[in-house]
Amino acid sequence: MTTTHTLTDEDRANLESLQAQIDSSPVGRGQLIPLLQKAQKTLGYLPEEALALVADHLEITRSEVYGVASFYNQFRFNPPGRNPVKVCMGTACHVRGGEIILENFERKLEIKEGETTEDREFSIERVACVGCCALAPVALVGETLHGHMAPSKVEGLVLRVRVEKEKAEREAAKQ
Ligand code: FES
């Protein structure tokens, strides 16, 4: 089943908005995918609570809803991280050790690909060629592309994000 992340206040507000959208939707199996798409658009992911709202509305079981949702890779069951880590697995990156870079991020962040850290700072996913093969292996952290990645660079990148965050929080506290 889905991994459980504690719902944030924003998630709860989004679930309320989803409930209103679901209430005004027709009932019928044909609505399953459209409702899941609505849920993902509203929350950014599909927590168990959203699957439950959809299941109750369509009068089908939660496991049936989950079964269908998990069949499509357009749906995600973990909240997106504020700094999504995307490790390129295109051919050029793959042959230059993309898999090892991915493993290093997984070890450092203590999550698996497709998951999100409990503080929602990071999520990890593998992506297809990002178009910078000359820089292989490549990873993106947030919007920033890092070329010629090496396992030894992973820790520094994660640390940099955490330091930046602390700095921003300190600045915000001063104001
Ligand atoms: S294969 Fe990774 S950038 Fe092209």
From TrEMBL:
Keyword Heme: no
Keywords for the protein's UniProt record, in alphabetical order: 2Fe-2S, Iron, Iron-sulfur, Metal-binding
Free-text comment on the cofactor: Binds 1 [2Fe-2S] cluster.
Coiled coil: none
Gene3D superfamilies, per database record: Glutaredoxin (3.40.30.10), NADH-quinone oxidoreductase subunit E (1.10.10.1590)
Entry GO MF terms: 2 iron, 2 sulfur cluster binding; metal ion binding; oxidoreductase activity
The keyword Iron-sulfur is assigned to this record: yes
Residues binding [2Fe-2S] cluster: 88, 93, 129, 133
Cofactor section: [2Fe-2S] cluster
Family according to the record: Belongs to the complex I 24 kDa subunit family.
PANTHER family documented for this protein: BIFURCATING [FEFE] HYDROGENASE GAMMA SUBUNIT (PTHR43342:SF1), NADH-QUINONE OXIDOREDUCTASE, E SUBUNIT (PTHR43342)
Descriptive protein name: NADH dehydrogenase subunit E
Annotated organism of origin: Desulfosarcina widdelii
